[in-house]
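Reviewer 2 asked us to include a model.

Predict the structure of this chain.
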Amino acid sequence: MESLYYAHSRVGEDIDSKPEFQSVKDHLEGTAKLCSKFASQFGAASEGKLIGLAHDVGKCTEAFQKRLLENGPKTDHSTAGAILCLKEKNDIFAAACVAGHHSGLPDIGNPNVDQADSKTVCGRIKKGIEKKYLENCKICDIELPNSQQEDFKRDNLKRAFITKMLFSCLVDADFLDTEEFMNFGKVSRGEYDDFPKLLSRLNSYVSKWKNPSTKLNRLRTEIFETCENFGKSERGIYTLTVPTGGGKTIASLSFALNHAVKNNMQHIIYVVPYTTIIEQNAKVFSDILGSGNVLEHHCGVLYDIDDSATEEEKKKSLATENWDMPVIVTTAVQFFESIYSNKSSKCRKIHNLANSVVIFDEAQMLPMQHLAPCVAAVSALPELFNSTVVLCTATQPVIGDLVKKFSSSLSIREICPQSEKMFDSFKRVCFEREGVLSDDGLSELLSNKRQVLCVVNSRKAANTIYKKLSQEGSFHLSTLMVPEHRMKTVEKIKNRLKNNEPCRVVSTSLIEAGVDLDFPSVFRELSGLDSILQAAGRCNREGKRAAEESIVTVFERAEKAPSVFSRQISSTKEALSLSKGIDSPEAINQYFKSYRSFAGDSIDKDEIIRAFQKGVDGCYYPFEYVAKKFHFIDNDTKTVYVPYGEGADLIKRLKNGEKSKKLFRELGKYSVNIYENHYKDLFSAGDITVFDDFAVLENMNIYDEKTGLSLNAEFGKDEYI
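Predicted model (structure tokens):
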């Protein structure tokens, strides 16, 4: 009987050949095999097999066969498998995975109140299907396995994470089995170098560092060797606290590779806050390990598959879908929004976090308003999914209590405990406090410096102070300049610094995001202590000057800082009043304690944890609800595309109706994000044309070659991508 039912059809390899078909049974068994394999990485092979076998049994119907063979109307083929999981195995979580394997993981809902027209799993179950649908397993000669996992069903948050991970396994397995059939088994995936070979390449790369001659290089080598040895430890959650200049990028890679080899792990995933840091790290890793083993994945990079694409480019394009490469470098936005998404395309990759090493670079950048759901996800990886997590930074956030709250069995261990004693040895700057400065007084101090960077808290402040400086040798950087404009400006700045020409830069905090610049002097408006230390990283960055000659001046503006910075500023003041120095470990620890204290209960702005633990309005496991609520970056801005440089031609294509992902990614280099009031003012003045969900700047007279878009915004925060 099963041969009468088909899951997919394809055109034969020969032009004149007839269509070829994959039977439902073959597809279910192929998907189940892959799904079980993926889920075995976290002890859920039986659950993986169950949802793999059940997901497409609804294709064994006349309605679906008519859809496939005769291009008939669309039909629901997933509800049957969901009902089967619930009726036969009493597994509502498996039912949710099956029900949403195309449309997205749905809210489970409430069996007592949901009606048949509800989009929840409970509603779809009540919708009912013909009795013969429940015989589909018998038609396909398939026996469903029993679900084995019972431990976490009473812990709603953990059960939600497990369901999300199983859903990811199913989606990826379904895609891969279908892809193999449709491409006649010819797929540009896999065949990467294994971790022992990658570790050998790293060891060869660092062999030149043996027998270091300088004190700093000896300390860097000590940090590296500590990470190398600690990598042979068991799975868990770790911190790696390394002072700026201590070589944490290579040291953390050594830990990760040694750890992956020791524990037979799948992948190494680096999660970083900014694309500028991603590009630097991905290049370093590619140079050491081979570019074919490293995937750089964020919205600013695009791998196209066309006739001219190399095999490596094809692999990388496919790997963005499911992260099946050895080393992944991605953004915190991509990482956390994938975990809390319910969309099949976004969730597909997250099962590859299981049994992997996940390193959070600059871990202090986790947004306070979403700290609880972020830490909950981070804690779930080692507790539930056999992963190892490393929080890597020079300024560790205080989150141990949250880790314990969400995963009481975990204990955080420091990889390099001796590094705290090394902070003074790596010191490259000295800090001075200037007190309150007027903008005129500040601009006078800056004008007296040949090369200096000044970082302020708002775009308005950057614009105001910049205009008070002599224009010769002075530069402005803010998010009111399109990225392409900023990049060109940064290149000019680098050249002037290199040639020892006058160079005075006024910037918002975007310059702290991994921008590789080296100034002899830095001024930083009082803000969060972590931001101050990031700004200090642009002073004497290469260590060519004495620390005593490299001064970071911390000041307050006479004009009150925007209210959004009040918590950070108050926390910094408290930390500095109770500790010896701005850059001391004591000050850093006290800052994060104070910041958490000021934040109080507002570390889960959208109540994501409560939504999973308690439900929302009687709806349990609200996967779709959470996906709509959770946004790693609270973005209350609107996008304006600017016809700057090559952006003009891209905008023409956009206006002509082109809406491809590639076009929007290219347009990202020519965009400015502005706040609602600014947007309304531009619209009222006729300076922008508004389309569906974006706008185009029509009046280039208000886009300045020095400062970007004419300013009427309250403040500018760091730009995450």
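The mean pLDDT is 89. The two ends are 52 Å apart (CA to CA). We have added this to the supplementary material.
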